[in-house]
Amino acid sequence: QEYVGTEIWSAPEVLIDDIISDKADIFSFGLTLWEMLSLDHPNIPSVSDSSMDSSTWSQDSDASIMECTSTGTPINDSVMEQSFTPGQKPKMPADLGPEYDVIIQLIDFCTIEDCTERPNAEQVLKFIQANRKK
């Protein structure tokens, strides 16, 4: 059975061809929550992290290929290898207030690197229910 997914949202065990369970989807869910919170893609440096300014980057929505618009050519593989870190939990944005503590805890819970320690879907649901504001 082959796993189908996108590397930047994949769990570490997926990327190293280890045993894959439903907990790989929990890791991806955690990264999706992170993406919604940070308004950025996980495990790809933001333009502000890059040595290039924002006018040099664009997203080709048809092919989902990042390109350097100053040259119109795709970024070469060596650049992506240096900046692309799939299977890791990205850093949280530094400017989040205490009102985000519960969602940060949920993201941390879902993106535990060791899949045997990562929660299953039922545990995630229980966490959400226990922390829901009434």
TrEMBL record:
Highest taxon, organism lineage: Eukaryota
GO MF annotation terms: ATP binding; protein serine/threonine kinase activity
Sequence ranges assigned to domain Protein kinase in this UniProt record: 1-134
Bias (Low complexity): 48-62
Region (Disordered): 48-75
Record's keyword terms, sorted: Kinase, Transferase
InterPro entries: Kinase-like_dom_sf, Prot_kinase_dom, Ser/Thr_Kinases-Pseudokinases
Name the record gives this protein: Lymphokine-activated killer T-cell-originated protein kinase homolog
Native source species: Cacopsylla melanoneura
